[in-house]
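Incident log, structure service

09:12 report received: a user says their structure output differs between two submissions of the same chain.
09:20 pulled the input from the user's history:
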Amino acid sequence: IDPQTGDLYGTTTFGGNPACRNGCGVLYRLSSKGDFEVLHSFDDADDGRYPAGQLLRDKKGNFFGAATSGGPGLGGAIFEWTNKGKFKLLHAFSDSDGFQPQGGLLLGRDGNLYGATYSGGAHEYGTIFRLTPKGELITLYAFAGGNDGGYPSGNVVLAHGKVYGTTTWGGPDEDGVVYVVDANSGAQKVLHSFTGNDGEGPEAGLTM
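09:34 re-ran on a clean worker, output below:
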């Protein structure tokens, strides 16, 4: 929401561009007066398709989000809708650096964006990443699908220089884990491994 105007912003996973099957999704604004406007219609090849997760707004009024697939690298993309009303592609994933970003993004005090990809990366089990304002992506951790977890889903939480989240797979019983990754060193630690009896396959992320 824009606190000055009361306008609401969001995305749809499908619809919009008729060139995409079922549409590639749109970015929209719903004004405080109830007027609806499509701000951007995703086209797959250039900017990705199927945006998901909550939009992130910074103090300058720029919005950030993720398209879960497609784009120049075919693995999804991170985008920005600037406070001047312009769409900007910040990073296109290509599987080697992650695939299918989802769960929304976080803005750190350092001005960088943080998030997770569901799959891809060095071991194909997903990644935790940091993205600079200039679009430089740094992979903080690549999941291996073993005791460290695999296929992170849902939003991540950033606190005191550490990224917290969950994976839907991995751990000794392959039922998912709760993890923490140091945003500076990239060191990963499993805080809890689910066993089935205490839960299985967490998908909704965490709240601190």
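09:41 both user submissions now match this output. Likely a transient worker issue. Closing.
09:42 reviewer note: The chain has a mean pLDDT of 95. The longest strand covers residues 150-159.
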